Amino acid sequence: MTPSSSIAAPGAVPGHEAHDDHGHHPSYLTDGTTVKSWLLTVDHKRIGIMYLAWILLFFLVGGIFALLIRIELLTPGPTIMDAMTYNRVFTLHGVVMIFLFMIPAIPSVFGNFLLPLMLGAKDVAFPRLNLLSLYVYLAGAGFALWGMLNGGLDTGWTFYTPYSAHTTTTVAPVLFGAFIIGFSSILTGMNFIVTTHTMRAPGITWFKMPLMVWALYATSCIQVLATPVIGLLLLLVTAENLFSLGMFDVARGGDPVLFQHLFWFYSHPAVYIMVLPAFGVMSEVVSTFSRKNIFGYRAVAYSSVGIAFVGFFAWGHHMFVSGQSTFNAGVFGVLSMLVGVFTAIKVFNWVGTVYKGAVEFSTPFAYFCGFLFFTVFGGMTGIAVATVSLDVAWHDTYFVVAHFHFIMVGATIMAFLAALHYWFPKMFGKMYHEGWGLVSAALIILGFNATFIPQFLVGNAGMPRRYYEYPERFQALNVASTAGASLLAFGFIIIAIYLTYALIYGERVDNPWHSKGYEWLTHSPPPTHNFIGPQPTYPEEPHFYVDPKKAQGEVSDV
Amino acid sequence: MSDLANQFLFLPERASTFAERVDFLHYFVVGTTMVMSAGVGLAALFMFFRYRRREAHQHTEYVVPDLKTEFLFVSVPLVFFLAWFAIGFRDFTWFTTPPKDSMDVYVMGKQWMWKFSYPEGPNGVNVLHVPANRPVRLLITSRDVIHSFYVPSFRIKMDALPGRYTQAWFEATKPGTYQVLCTEYCGLSHSKMLAEVVVLAPEDYENWLQEQQRGRLQDRQDALADTSLVPPVARMAEQGQKLVGTQGCLKCHSVDGSKHIGPTFLGMYEREEKLDDGQTIRVDEAYITQSMMDPGAHIVAGYQNVMPTYQGKLQGPESAAIVEYIKTLRTANVRETASEGPAYDPIQ
């Protein structure tokens, strides 16, 4: 990690000395520049930056494997690898993307960096625990990657028994790695919950918290409640694989479907661990770039909690054709619809926020547009696959692959990139090139659609997922999807280039968006203890852009 | 019209009664999705333009929705979603309830092939022959890991679980050949686990069946010397009758209605049994199979949990044959009290 050295980089524009002199306090980036001062830091901002570095690395690994999958599927038969390798590659893609990227991405990076700033706190409630959760995450990641390189499992990221109990590949290290990562997730969640409850600055009541905080709070509740279930399950499967326990083996009185229930009891709420923080990011972005208070703040806040709650009661919709009873299918079907309603509330309120606003079409806002499309379309196809009779046709086909990439990956990546661009000046005090930002945003949104819209159609045509070879009639759509994936990869490369450039040579900025979010009340990059001098006061709501002189009597209803 | 829609949506040929129901809802859902997405998208685009920023520090008005707007936001999607759910659940219930007169076929998934067996007919691998316009119930199980039986043209799918039967049914509407795929990841050759359903016109099906029952060996005198080529017992029930003897089932289960260590097989199929935990269970293919593979799962009241598991000892077709045999032991009336004449009606 060397972003700290960039502060003194020769390319820094003149005039920033004045800014540095501003309080004679070094920013968190320059307060200690030794390797040790980073590795043993308890500063939530540095921990967030270290998470960012690792998470980007794992995103690169998962992305390379995604491209390998797409290249293999260019032709109906074998293309660049054999079937066993392919099965390992898609498993690796899934495990790395889900456990090492999607789940920790926004909470661990931006949650860590922003939560205390948004609450007016000096740090999270348990700074040392926070550092521990980073190392627990890395230990788990190391374990899992070591297992994948030494043998590599071929079960898919869902590890369904009895296959995962019988396969000859090495399942145990990867499952154990995922088990360890679970602890990191629980620790971070606990830390955020306690921080939100106990460390809000005077003036910040529950309904004056930024919506990002609401989203992180709801996410943390899911992390703390659901992760232990998958932890136990992964231990059971490891034991089944190593010692033939018989938990999921019919011959010994076990039940393979029990595995699916336990697995989805975690993994369905885990989807909301991935997208709820994304919703939080977008609430901040749409408010800042339309200079408006959130239309229906309470509705958006409550719907985060609502999603976290009903998310626990919808897992059975992954199992409509697993032989579960018709009654169960009905119950899980109707409960799944409620998630859609809560998401719809958010979408309508975001669009409503723009009403009578002042929209600046910058890079983060471009990602908001992409996000809006992926969320609406991905969410609506989610309702479609939760419709029981339709799911009989679609279950385990590429339609489902396209659906979850739209809502889970599309929405989360849009939010991750929006967050990266929106808070880049906050984190590093530097600005990137806006033109390149818009170009790469357009490429990524276009590439994403080009990759996954053909997958909806090939799923309609009946192509099952996890297929190494496929009947020839599916080829045209697969080629289209691969073409889209290369466009997507190209967009990411551009981002990597101009953000690295901005990190070194970027123009110094403090609050380029004129945002009124609480986190912008301190300097960019913030000093080590977040605030210099007395703590700021919070007389206004977050997301409040009304002219103070005219604020009296200016409230209008729609 | 709907053919055009199917082409636009890349849907495969529609060849079963269930497919018609699924496709109708598919158009409704996808159509609404498109309209709603377009509506939200266009409204957003319009507002992005209409309310674009004119100066850097522009102040805006404080706008909050009234209760009516929020109510609208909740109720409109809710009404649509519940409507889809209602139609979808109605069709799903229809799909999980095979008609009483449906024809049974046993399906067994195995890494990496599909085996089909008919109670009255031949066994086959990877090709399933069925008549058109007649409901066919599939009784699906697996020999090893979880598979899933999927026929895109019929829009049907059902998981194959080891040690348990699941069921699915369809009524094919036109003769032809339709692909069967496995949709639950099952290992190395998952994507090669293909089969086909050959739908024949009813009279063609009868001819085919007779041809199979006559045995092809008549045409192949040279093969008669090779006993391994002799087809297995044609009727699964007869095979099952032999198996209950050789597997030792009859040491504990009677076939004449008398009480023994285990419940009698006579009249067992489709009976409502009282369990020792007070619940009742209907004896169907799934319950019989489960009782063979995991005997302790549901014990009928009044019996001990003493039966060993047959998982691994019985192959899929063998357990299917035993189920078929038990299904033949039907009687209208079994008494368990003191006899006042004939204890039961003649076996049908």
From TrEMBL, chain A:
One Pfam family matching this protein: COX1
Gene designation: ctaD
Coiled coil: none
Record flagged with keyword Membrane: yes
Family statement drawn from the similarity comment of this UniProt entry: Belongs to the heme-copper respiratory oxidase family.
Molecular-function GO term, any one: cytochrome-c oxidase activity
Sequence ranges assigned to domain Cytochrome oxidase subunit I profile in this UniProt record: 38-539
GO cellular component: membrane
Protein localization: Membrane
Record membrane topology: Multi-pass membrane protein
Domain of life: Bacteria
InterPro entries xref list: Cyt_c_oxase-like_su1_dom, Cyt_c_oxase-like_su1_sf, Cyt_C_Oxase_1, Cyt_c_Oxase_su1_BS
Any one Gene Ontology BP term: respiratory electron transport chain
Organism the protein comes from: Corallococcus coralloides (strain ATCC 25202 / DSM 2259 / NBRC 100086 / M2)
Chain segments carrying region Disordered: 1-23
Organism classification: Bacteria, Pseudomonadati, Myxococcota, Myxococcia, Myxococcales
Protein name in UniProt: Cytochrome c oxidase subunit I
Keyword terms of this UniProt record: Electron transport, Heme, Iron, Membrane, Metal-binding, Respiratory chain, Transmembrane, Transmembrane helix, Transport
Regions crossing the membrane: 49-71, 91-117, 129-149, 169-194, 214-237, 263-283, 295-315, 327-345, 365-390, 402-424, 436-457, 477-504
UniProtKB/TrEMBL annotation, chain B:
Membrane-spanning parts: 24-49, 70-89
InterPro entries from the UniProt entry: CcO_II, CcO_II-like_C, Copper_CuA, Cupredoxin, Cyt_c-like_dom, Cyt_c-like_dom_sf, Cyt_c_oxidase_su2, Cyt_c_oxidase_su2_TM_sf
Protein keywords: Copper, Electron transport, Heme, Iron, Membrane, Metal-binding, Respiratory chain, Translocase, Transmembrane, Transmembrane helix, Transport
A single GO cellular-component term on record: membrane
Short name of one Pfam family: COX2
Membrane topology: Multi-pass membrane protein
Compartment annotation: Membrane
Coiled-coil residues: none
A GO BP annotation: ATP synthesis coupled electron transport
UniProt enzyme class: translocase
Span of domain Cytochrome c: 235-330
Gene3D superfamilies, sorted: 1.10.287.90, Cupredoxins - blue copper proteins, Cytochrome c-like domain
NCBIfam families: CoxB
Function (record text): Subunits I and II form the functional core of the enzyme complex. Electrons originating in cytochrome c are transferred via heme a and Cu(A) to the binuclear center formed by heme a3 and Cu(B).
Annotated family: Belongs to the cytochrome c oxidase subunit 2 family.
Protein name from the UniProt record: cytochrome-c oxidase
